[in-house]
Every structure is written in C-alpha cells, then in structure tokens.
Amino acid sequence: GYAATTLQQICARARVAPRHFYEHFESREAILVAILEALSDEVVARASRCEPAPSENPLGDLQRRLAQVLAFYGEHPLLTRIACIEVVGVSDTVEQRRREKSARFRRLILDDLGALARRRKIPARDYTLTAIALIGALDELLSEWVLRPESIDFDAIVAESSRLLNAAVAR
C-alpha cells in the first residue's frame, strides 16, 4: 500500500532514478494526487460518454452511467484500491482532492436526478444527500471487492448499485 511504499520502490517499479522522479513530482504524495486527479477525469469522461437510451425505467440512463463508471473500476483493481483505500488518511491535501473527486461525480448524479425531477419522472426534491450516500455506498462496495475479490462478484456490485439508486429515489 501507499503508506509502506518508499520512493525508491516507486522509482524501481517505474525504472527511473529518483532525480527523474523529482523532475515530475515533488513527493510521493504529489504522485498520489496526480493519480487521483487522473482517475477523477476518467470517471467523469466515462460517465459523460454514456449515451441516453430509451427505457421504461426513468433511472435507466443514470444506472447505465453508474455501470459505466463501475466497469472502469472493475477493469482496474489497482486504481480502484488507490481511489477507495490508499488515499484515506494520507494528508489534508489528499483528502481535499478525494473530496473534490467525489464532488465531481456527485454533480453528475445530481444533474441527472435534477433533469428527471424537472420532467416529473421522479419526485422533485433535493437529492444531494442521496448522491452523497450513493457515492459512499459505491466506495464501500468497491473497497470490499478490492480487499476480498474472491468473495464478492463484481457484477453483483453493479446490480446492487442499481437497486440502491432505485430505492433512494422511490416515490
């Protein structure tokens, strides 16, 4: 994990000398922040690329967005570990970046839910706490999967996220 990984180990794995590392990053924390920001960019890009599709379920498009994001994490267990586990408790700076990552994803969820509410497909209300809770649930599900992949089927996480979303906005 991050806490036990030395700069020398990072440089050896990347096949670069420490002086070359410092040409790009100030510290181990700086590379962690860069990874977190790149992850956030990719999650938002994946969610944004998800095209609307006809569905009887008003939450269908948002469920597909969530599935798209989860698919990215499922394809990259090491990045999932970094995003959900390794960033916790590192520093105030990393925590701020982690929260910014969550806020970007929360805005996507809120935009979708707001659009559905304006079209009267779901009840009109403030869904901020719902989005925060959903992101927290997804984070915990992904953390469990990373820590115990043999005991948690990834497809079950995708299905559960859909059920959680449905339950959270039920009329």
Please explain how this structure is put together.
This protein has a single domain (27-168), classed as Tetracycline Repressor, domain 2, CATH 1.10.357.10. It contains eight helices and no strands. With 171 residues, the chain is an all-alpha fold. The radius of gyration is 18 Å and the shape is elongated. The longest helix is centred in the middle third of the chain and has 27 residues, at 92-118.
User: What is the number of helices?
Assistant: 8
Question: CATH homologous superfamily name?
Answer: Tetracycline Repressor, domain 2
CATH topology: Tetracycline Repressor, domain 2
SSE order, one letter for each helix or strand: HHHHHHHH
Any key phrases for this structure?
single chain, 171 residues, mainly alpha, Tetracycline Repressor, domain 2, 8 helices, 0% strand, elongated
Per-chain topology:
Elements: H1 7-14, H2 18-24, H3 28-49, H4 60-75, H5 77-86, H6 92-118, H7 128-147, H8 154-168
Helix pairs in contact: 3-4, 3-6, 4-8, 5-7, 6-7, 7-8
Concise account of the structure shown:
With 171 residues, the chain is mainly alpha-helical. The protein contains eight helices and no strands. Helix 3 runs parallel beside helix 6 and helix 6 crosses helix 7.
